Amino acid sequence: MNKPIPVVICDDSLLARKQMARSLQGWNVSITFATNGLEALEAIHNGLGHLIFLDLNMPIMDGYQVLERIIRDDLQTLILVVSGDIQPDAAKRVKSLGALDFIKKPINEQIVSDILHQYGLLKELSPESANQTHSTPVSTAIDLQSYYQEIANVAMGRAGDRLARLLGVFIHLPIPRVQLITINELAMTLQTHIQREASATVSQGFVGSGIAGEALLLFTETSIQDMANLMRYDDALTPEAEREILIDLANVLSGAFINSLALQLDISFSQGPPSIIGLHGNMPDMERSDQGWEKTLSIEIGYRIGEQTISCDLLLLFTEDSLDAMNNRAKFFESL
Question: Is pLDDT at 140 greater than 60 in this prediction?
Answer without folding.
Answer: no
